[in-house]
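Exercise 7.
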Amino acid sequence: MTYNDLIFDTYFTNAIHSAIVVDDEFPTYDLLTEQIINSGKTAPPAETAKWDYKKSQSVYNTFTSRNIPCDIEYDVTSLAKKTERLRKSDLVVLDYQLITGSDSSKEALEVIQQLSQNDHFNIIIVNTNNNNLNSVWIEIALTMKNDFPSSIVSLKTIYESTDWVKFDIESLTSRITSKIILAFIENNYKTNKTSRTTISKLILKQGVRGPNIPKYVDALIFRAIELMNIQTIGESTNRQFNLQSKCDETNNIRWILNDKVFVVIKKKQKDQDTQDEGVLGNDDPEKLISTLKAALCNWQPSPIQLLMSNIQNTVEQGSLSFRLDLTRSYKDQAAWLYHALKKANTADQTGSTCTDAFSHFNTSISETVKGALLNSERVKKFQRDVLCTLKKNQPEIKHSLDIIEYTLGFFTDDCSAEDIIRSLNFNLSCLPTLENTHITTGTIFKNDHGYWVCSSPACELEPSQTAGYNDWLKILSPHRPMIALKLKPAKDADMEKTTNGNLIFADDKIWGVVDKTCGLPSPELFVFENTLETNGENLTFTAFQLNKEDDDIKSKLETFTIVAQLRPEYAGRLLQKTGVHMSRIGVDFENFPSICTD
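Solution. The predicted structure, written as tokens, is:
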């Protein structure tokens, strides 16, 4: 099995469960049924004259022969109301000129825009009769990025306020290729270094000098987009998307990817007899599949992307079967319900929220799913296939650095061996997401003065925990004390001793838990203002720190931001290290005198 086979299996064979063709020249099943029922009774509707029964059947058979249910959407005038139906189809075959007799792409762009904002990943094959495929490519890219109109206001101002008499505008804009424009869009409407150098040289050749050349370059690209006379639509939300794209003109491959959709662009071939193009034109429907496969293989997602997508496919297909042993009896179900209701009824008094009521239940469910995932034969087989394919293609490995070099070949972004090891240790030791809305053992936080990691027991940091028998805590209430270790900046060279367990990886930096000289941690006392909760999605909180001013001890209210959360086993080890340090017993010994030599 080749790597391209793994890509196609992951994103087509095992991912596409349904398909829909959107075109007003293909009849839907209900329209066909209605026509059969009314055959001979009433005259057929006028639109039946443009229906292409043979191609409709051919497309249908292309997908059903692969065990993929296929549907057809005929009414293209109200697609905005049918986004949910399209969303539920993993593959959408979309005619770019949806209205017969019109060259407008507005309706198709609106479909792409709406699918770009849902929580389901869709693949879209766009068929167009536009001879300028690069123009279509740019139209779709601007739509998928979803911020073009507002982001180019400043560029338009620069262009309109510049004295272009000094420039040969036509000559300059003609040298701005589609690839330069796409790179400009992907780079958040800023010219990348390569493009800026190329266009700057052209401007300099025209005798223009000065510090504003970078602005001229961006404004010229904006003008080049304007001159393409492309169709654009407004932003539907405030959300912006990062794009990946590729235009391989040699092999006629064009695709665009954001977080939610993968779009492939395909040119329709005219029917030689009727000059009709429809959604397919004179193409064999199998070309839909071959075009998609070529684009997916051209994309070349990384092995880790393949593994993650395979797991998602496994879950979505229901192949990840697991027994919910924690609810195997009515007694267990009643116990979980009692636990949730008790938490919900005490939420107001303890400061916790009703959503916390099911936190332990959700954790138990996730542990069960985790066990099923680890034991899934389907997942394990695919992972073996990926590793076997990678090992078959790898060069001779003499050192771990050789593996790093081979790994970097799958990615376009520049990164070093040190970057990889830092990232690996961060992912091994920290949770992928910040699950808690309150501070707990192992929470890493920062402000302008440094980084710390919480090393108080988790039970003392629960928002619902009361002061209980502790008189000092009662006096401080509703304020809450916390111990945290001050982290010491470390260097990449220190990673050679990572396995000693004295380093923390967060914010793409390395931090030491103990002082290099004495080997001891540095605990500090914080007092939360009135709650352990963080400030929503900003993940900020306020706490008092003790400081010395002159000879007086002062408390100062500071704002901190959470940056990461250690995994439970790492947080527990840190708690143990702090406990050992704070319960240490000093004893007196005497070293043998050292002899000083010159």
